[in-house]
Amino acid sequence: MDKKNGSQRQVSVEALKAGDRAEFALFVENYSPAIYRLGLRMLGNEQDAEDILQDTFIKAFQHIQEFEGRSLLSTWLYRIATNEALMLLRKRRPDTVSVEEPIDNDEDSLQEPLQILDWTNLPEDELLSTEMRAYMKQAVEQLPDSLRITFILREIEDLSTQETAQVLNISEAAVKTRLSRARLLLREELSSYYEERVKGSVYGAQ
Asked: I need a labelling partner for 127 at 20 to 30 A (CA). Which of 14, 116, 137, 161 fits?
């Protein structure tokens, strides 16, 4: 069973290709939450996410005959949704970098950030606070597009490295490189957020 389909009944690709309306309705029902969530995380706007959701299933319906089963059905759908979101981003921001463009693999660019704090000194409720989650969301949104989309697919949507590579049409090595960069940038960004809290915790204990 397609792992993105959870415990719901698996959609029959054969029935979809045969034009079975009930099967297509099940297809939409099963995958709409994930596709809407992806659109919202990529674009940050509920109306845009709704548009991406609608356009993704229209494209899927139009091109289901082209699905050859070389990937999971969910991976194929994620790729359509990602492409639709990127097209919308490019219309609004012509300078948007294509996620398929290579990123320099210079080892120097993968070095650890200089300012990394030890977050273990903070109480758990601080780490899980609403404020912290909002700051984390903002930090993810500020990542460069190619890194942000890779991070969303791999870490938030929980696609495998192989699936993420298929969605973005890049190599698995490129996925790993981009994910490493995204994590380092996020760690560096969040370190500044926690700096005062760590200091406050230390001084408060004195």
From this structure: 161
Q: Which residues does 30 contact at the CB level (< 8 Å), separation at least 6? A: 5, 6, 8, 9, 11
CATH number of 3-92: 1.10.1740.10
Count the Cβ atoms, other than its own, within 10 Å of residue 61: 13
User: With a threshold of 0.90, does the pTM exceed it?
Assistant: no
> For the stretch 119-155, what's the b/e string if a residue is b when 16 or more beta carbons lie within 10 angstroms of its beta carbon?
beebeeeeeeeeebeebeeebbeebbbbbbbbbbbbe
**Type of residue numbered 167:** V
Task: Please check whether the domain covering 107-204 is classified as CATH 2.60.120.560.
Answer: no
How do residues 94-112 score in pLDDT, each as one tens digit? Answer: 665 555 554 444 333 444 4
Parse the chain into domains and list their residue ranges: 3-92, 107-204
- Asked if residue 49 lies in contact with residue 36, where contact means CB atoms within 8 angstroms, the answer is yes
Q: Are 74 and 2 in contact (CB under 8 A)?
A: yes
pLDDT digit string, tens, across residues 64-97:
999 998 899 999 999 999 999 999 988 877 665 5
